[in-house]
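#structure-requests
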Amino acid sequence: MATPTNTPEITPLLHILQDHAPAGPEESQILQLNCHVAWEVTDWNLFLGFEHVPTNWNDRHKACLYVRKKIGSEKINQLPGGGKLLVGIEIELQPAKSLQIINLYNPPTLFLGLDPLDTWMTNQITRQIATILCMDSNLHHPKWNPPGMRSVQKQAAQLIEMCGKSGFCLSSSPQVPTYYSRKGRGSTIDLCWSNFLASKIVKSVNTSTKNYGLDHQAVIITIQTRPAPPLKKWTRPAWEAIDMESAKSKLQSLLQPIQESLNDTQTSPTEIALRLVDTLRNHQESLGRTVAATPHRAKDWNIYV
């Protein structure tokens, strides 16, 4: 893609897509798009680690954040502690509710991004604000490697321990390739981590099938600012406590229209069978009850260490 003449090539990219989610106005999307090509920026504001001042082209910033201009600048605060490989911002989602987004580029081979990340987590991390950490990790580990990849790097264990101690848990889909080599071999190196408060508003993290012509797949993070409705589940009827005569009488009344349709030659047997199955299922569900679901949670928040 083309790039403005005064805009350097920067990698990776993290786009915050406001009001892009089709599910409703209370949802937003974050597009984590790690690439190694230039890109033309129009309706976006650029954020770089102001602590780093490049001295030449090879010393340019490697991590950045792009935010749509429709999000007012008064709602965005750039976080200190950034640099060449790391940048962070804080966005006001609602009054008294903010979200921090950190973007990290960890160069391959030397993995120089881990040191600034460790420094940031030591000096800048706060668990009182929802924080999402996105990264081009360039690291392989069995916890997120796609099937068939056995590569393991010791720096990956260091990353896991670092994130776990700071209260971050992996939110992105493990074992889903986000980068394909020239030989077509896929690896999962683009990761998304959330702390406890961020996990409450992250609705989903999906790897897009589109890569926008780049060498990385886009990772779409959908956040929901309003509390999600409580999960409910249906429980089996307590048969010993049910009045069988009353239940039998109600079922007979429900089956009466189906019995009458047996004489209708225009009604196919398949349609009658489907109506019968639905009637029996609905009747059985009415005898049970709906209770709040309690999804399984890991006993230890840091499930990878």
